[in-house]
């Protein structure tokens, strides 16, 4: 069954001096302030589209990796994934780097890295971001 999730943003003012609020509607998980300075300079307590992409990518990748490891007979005890989305004003998103550390009984570093590479390519968020360079560092422990 297909699912649809929604969020919305209310923006006030011009790009450089304006600000907005993004709301996670489907989950009701909250509202977050967003502005150009939080995107191109310092967060200062506000989020950015890139941080939201990083959250989506790190969670999707973790789910895909967990599924792949489980199907291989080595379900993870714990996966910790960090996504770094780089934004260059005037250019856009220039890359995403995923770093994952896993506690996976019964697997070795080579099998873990292979599963992580597969998840990097095949998680739905990675597929949605085709055209963006996505790199990966994977380690056990």
Give an account of the 3D structure.
- It is built from 4 helices and 6 strands.
- The chain is α+β, with helices and mostly antiparallel strands and 141 residues long.
- The protein has 2 domains: 7-40, no CATH class; 49-140, K homology (KH) domain (GMP Synthetase, Chain A, domain 3).
- It has a 3-stranded antiparallel beta sheet with strand order 1-2-3.
- A hairpin with a 6-residue loop joins strand 1 (7-12) and strand 2.
- The radius of gyration is 17 Å and the shape is elongated.
- 23% of the residues are buried.
- The mean pLDDT is 97.
Q: What attributes does this structure have?
A:
141 residues; GMP Synthetase, Chain A, domain 3; elongated; 4 helices; 2 domains; alpha+beta; 3-stranded mixed sheet; 33% helix; 3-stranded antiparallel sheet
């Amino acid at each position: 069954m297909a699912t649809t999730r929604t969020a919305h943003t209310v923006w006030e003012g011009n790009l450089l001096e304006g600000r907005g609020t993004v709301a996670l509607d489907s989950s009701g998980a909250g509202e977050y302030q967003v502005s150009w300075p939080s995107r191109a300079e310092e967060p200062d307590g506000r989020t950015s589209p890139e941080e939201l992409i990083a959250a989506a990518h790190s969670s999707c990748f973790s789910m895909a990796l967990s599924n792949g490891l489980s199907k291989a007979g080595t379900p993870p005890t714990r996966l910790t994934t960090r996504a770094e989305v780089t934004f260059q004003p005037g250019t856009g998103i220039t890359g995403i780097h995923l770093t994952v550390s896993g506690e996976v009984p019964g697997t070795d570093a080579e099998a873990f890295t292979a599963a992580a590479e597969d998840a990097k390519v095949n998680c739905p968020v990675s597929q949605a971001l085709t055209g963006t360079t996505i790199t990966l560092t994977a380690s056990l422990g």
